[in-house]
Amino acid sequence: MAKEHVSPVWSRTFPLTISHGEGCYIYDTDGRRYLDFTSGIGVTNTGHCHPKVVAAAQAQVGKIIHAQVNNYYHLPLLALTDALLTIVPDKSFDCFFLTNSGAEAIEGAIKLARHATKKPNIITFQGGFHGRTNLTMATDTGSTIYRAGYSPLASGVYITPFPYAYRYGWDPETTSQWCLKELRHMLHTQTAPFETAAVLIEPVQGEGGYVVPPVSFMKGLRTLCDEFGLLLIADEVQSGFGRTGKFFAVEHFGVTPDIIVMAKGLASGFPLAGLISRRDLMEKWTPGSHGGTYGGNAVACAAAVATIEVLKDGVVENAARMGKVLTAGLKKIQQKYPVMGDVRGLGLMVGVEFTTPDGNPGSDISNEVKKFCLDNNLLLLQCGTYHQVVRWIPPLVVNKEQIETALDIFEKAVASAV
Asked: Domain of 384?
């Protein structure tokens, strides 16, 4: 198996070749077991190879694999729409479009917003990440690596500050109100409401550093969108399907967006993504103006139905409980090591931001912590513009013993790094 034939454009976090996974663990080809707190970058929320998901996919493979949705309906697609209706954060959401990846779903959401409003422009937030296609790259501002060298990018995208209180050095409420004022200012200086279709936001910022906005900001954003006639698009690609201790992160804020983008945790690793919206909005999308050959794949849909069933069986509640255990443990370690400048998150979507004593991003510390953890059989990822944040995204089936094991390794890693 020659690795040199795999394109080097894929960056690689760990020098591992994996043979299999089970629950919260993965095993490399040397038989070494790792506690996987990456979840395939927030994908395997039900754990690796959950038996119910595996059984559902196996059963579907023997019936039909590809049933192209432009040609006909298929049973797993209809079963999935029924399942989604039981978990949507608001009963007004009653229409779904399915595609393959998060980036495709974001593009679909923007296309829907433009068709529905007949307006061209989109507002997104500093530090956001929404994908690697041409249009989604134009919305990515968490790091230059995602867009450098690809210009010209899609037009009609405007960037406004995200309420990242720790970065600004302000209290959350001051940050919230300043960012709302800046957004309002943008609508008077850069993109007028009559040419602005929507505002696109991650309810918890992912690649930008696992930053949770204040409740007042999300509520103020909804009010502002209503005032100016803008659609609100929630990118729940990483924060959805139980990750934050609720099925969708927007539920923490008491805010109902117009469109929700879903992917990652939807099908436990099968490529499936999509949009959630109201039928009256979807009906403004010209039939045939959007689509895709593999969207709503039958096997992926069957896996998604099983995923939702597993999540509804106490797994989302477990994410909320274990998130409290994880956050409390990290804050306890933080008291010993001030380089852990901030511990933040919701549920099992938690970030630890490292900061040097002189106030700069602690990228080197973060790198050393990640390497120490790898050497001690714990897999953690980084995020943030400078890779100064270590992010915790374990499978939602994780138990207290596994979290405590990980915290013990992490504390030793921080002690070693400083």
From this structure: 3-49+314-417
